[in-house]
């Protein structure tokens, strides 16, 4: 359904306190990275990042990225029937987790490569994050973005000083225009998710989550191109090999769910979802990582994502975008799977067009 016409289910009422609680970080006991699945699970590719890469990324970006809070809410715990720990990457620099991966990649570049300029493709959050990281490094940045990218995200990219080149929606157009820009500028590509440096950077959010909320039974992250979910899985299972890792994905962009179910990457689809940060398809690097580490990708519809977004706004007083609310929507849609468990949720971002949010919230519940 189009962005302005989402039908919302009525949120369940609760009389519990809506005041979020902050969990203070604790020292993380690091373990060796290993796969929690049985020997029949396909192995991750040899060039995939490992746990020590995420530890190195954490040190590399420490001077630039925020250590975002982990919040809890008794009201949402009661609604979900489990203990929820929200890793608030909506409070990250640039308004999303993407700054972690972009920062790690940009500050991994040699001075010579950085001087050539940096090129990426993005539906919004990675573009802004890359632009900010490039500015901090003193490098020029160019972002290839679909023409339907939300205005608020385009404004952020421009505010950080990057050039924008528009493309059509869909991965094929993104790749084609990105190749043209690279040929024209001679720049260096930092892919938004199919890049070991980016994946390692994204995993640092889960390092912080595991330190602040030890003893998690499961962690859920949104999935689009798979960089965040890959980094989440590597970091979580490096700290606790027994933890269950789930992806959360909108029905209108369900290529990750279908790819894992069918055992091969599904490509060529054009996503149709209000979750504009979850419209990319899995990469050649991220797909095998997810196959080897992720238990399941949980699907929700746009109405469920918006309802979860509204709950976070109302109960926790946090501005999140639909993509960032998808993990909560997944828990609420699959309560039995998480009953009485301790679950970490990666709230991936908060860059939302407030006019659109008002339209979504004003829509009649179904």
From TrEMBL:
InterPro entries: Ser/Thr_deHydtase_PyrdxlP-BS, TrpB-like_PALP, TrpB-like_PALP_sf. GO terms for biological process: D-serine biosynthetic process. Residues 64-349 form the Tryptophan synthase beta chain-like PALP domain. PROSITE patterns: DEHYDRATASE_SER_THR. Keywords: Lyase, Magnesium, Pyridoxal phosphate. One of its GO terms (molecular function) is threonine racemase activity. Pfam families: PALP. Its cofactor is Mn(2+); Mg(2+); Ca(2+); pyridoxal 5'-phosphate. The keyword Lipid metabolism does not apply. Belongs to the serine/threonine dehydratase family. PANTHER family: SERINE / THREONINE RACEMASE FAMILY MEMBER, SERINE RACEMASE. This is Serine racemase.
């Amino acid at each position: 359904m189009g962005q302005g016409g989402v039908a919302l289910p009525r949120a369940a009422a609760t009389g519990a306190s809506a005041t979020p609680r902050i969990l203070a970080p604790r020292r993380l006991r690091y373990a060796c990275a290993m796969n929690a699945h049985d020997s029949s699970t396909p192995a991750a590719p040899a060039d995939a990042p490992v746990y020590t890469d995420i530890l190195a990324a954490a040190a590399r970006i420490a001077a630039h990225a925020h250590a975002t809070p982990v919040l809890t809410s008794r009201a949402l715990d009661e609604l979900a029937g489990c203990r929820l720990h929200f890793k608030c990457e909506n409070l990250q620099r640039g308004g999303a987790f993407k700054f972690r991966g972009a920062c790690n990649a940009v500050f991994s570049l040699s001075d010579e490569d950085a001087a050539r300029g940096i090129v990426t493709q993005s539906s919004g959050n990675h573009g802004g994050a890359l632009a900010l990281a490039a500015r901090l490094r003193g490098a020029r940045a160019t972002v290839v973005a679909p023409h339907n990218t939300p205005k608020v995200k385009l404004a952020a990219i421009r505010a950080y000083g990057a050039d924008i080149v528009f493309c059509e929606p869909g991965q094929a157009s993104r790749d084609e225009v990105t190749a043209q820009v690279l040929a024209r500028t001679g720049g260096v590509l930092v892919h938004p998710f199919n890049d070991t440096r980016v994946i390692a950077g994204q995993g640092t959010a889960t390092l912080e989550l595991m330190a602040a909320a030890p003893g998690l039974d499961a962690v859920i992250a949104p999935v689009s191109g798979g960089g965040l979910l890959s980094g989440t899985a590597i970091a979580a299972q490096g700290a606790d090999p027994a933890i269950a890792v789930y992806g959360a994905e909108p029905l209108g962009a369900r290529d990750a769910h279908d790819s894992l179910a069918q055992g091969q990457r599904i490509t060529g689809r054009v996503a149709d979802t209000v979750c504009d940060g979850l419209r990319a398809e899995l990469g050649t690097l991220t797909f095998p990582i997810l196959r080897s580490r992720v238990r399941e990708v949980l699907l929700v519809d746009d109405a469920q994502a918006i309802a979860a977004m509204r709950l976070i706004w109302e109960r926790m007083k946090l501005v999140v975008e639909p993509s960032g609310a998808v993990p909560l929507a997944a828990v609420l849609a699959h309560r039995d799977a998480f009953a009485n468990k301790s679950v970490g949720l990666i709230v991936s971002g908060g860059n939302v067009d407030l006019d659109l949010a008002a339209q979504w919230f004003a829509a009649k519940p179904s």
